[in-house]
Amino acid sequence: FDEEIEKLKQHNIRLLAWWFPNVLNDEARLILDVLKRHELRGVQLWVSGGGGAVQNEAEQRAQVVAEAQRIRPIAEAAAQQGCAVALYNHGGWFGEPENQIAIIEHLKSQGVTNLGIVYNQHHGHDHLDRFPHLMRLMKPHLLAFNLNGMTRNGDKIGKKILPLGQGDLDLDLLRHLCDSGWVGPIGILNHTDEDAETRLRENLDGLDRLVARLKGKTR
Fold it and tell me: What is the DSSP letter of 133?
């Protein structure tokens, strides 16, 4: 970890976020120690979760409370380092933005305020029909947004991870994102075995084409 941080500094790369354990275990404390040792503040700690569907309001409330109890020690430890915790949609109950917002609001009522959401399109294939609505809900809490080439049912037909511009829904989804008025860090994840630089350039080329179309410069 220390070597990676030093390499980032050498190449003038800002460490924006860190994929973080789901509980405050030894690995989590090690990461926080690294951040403290290198005097890195403002880093987002991306924390995921799971969980099955609930059957009624009582189970929903219990799930929110249980997940808030899991997240709270991470958030409190992160706050000591000046860091935020971003809830990462990774499927299951926890991957639903409405549930993440419920957790955030529950903890906010207890004075824990360094929480938000990082939304990942590749885990949002079931959200496509209500994406504009979800953007309105998430906007006050959204800390980062990770793009992906999107096609309907892509996660079920072997197209869960696509370069930008190769999904037939990419332009409309990007337009909804822009129209929402949200401003913040936009991410591109590799999530494949392909060379990271090659994949990044492929995605950036696709993003450039999509942005040009949004601006009406090309069809």
Answer: H
Output the 3-class SS for 51-92: CCCCCCHHHHHHHHHHHHHHHHHHHHHHHHCCCEEEEECCCC
Dist. CA 219–CA 90, nearest whole Å = 34
**The total number of residues written for the chain in this structure:** 219
Tokens coding 22 = 């789901």
Q: Please report the pLDDT score of residue 219 as a whole number.
A: 54
* Selection from 124, 125, 143, 214 nearest residue 182 by Cα: 143
Contacts 24+ apart (CB under 8 A), 101-108: 101/137, 101/138, 101/141, 102/60, 102/64, 103/64, 103/67, 103/68, 103/71, 104/141, 106/64, 106/65, 106/68, 107/68, 107/71, 107/72, 107/75
pLDDT at 191: 87
User: Tokens in use for 110?
Assistant: 């207890």
Q: What pTM did the predictor assign?
A: 0.95
Q: Which residues pair with 87 in a beta bridge?
A: 47, 117
Instruction: Indicate if the alpha-carbon torsion angle 87, 93, 95, 101 is positive or negative.
Output: negative
The candidate with the shortest Cα–Cα distance to 59, out of 8, 102, 109, is: 102
Q: Residues 84-99: pLDDT tens digits?
A: 999 999 999 999 999 9
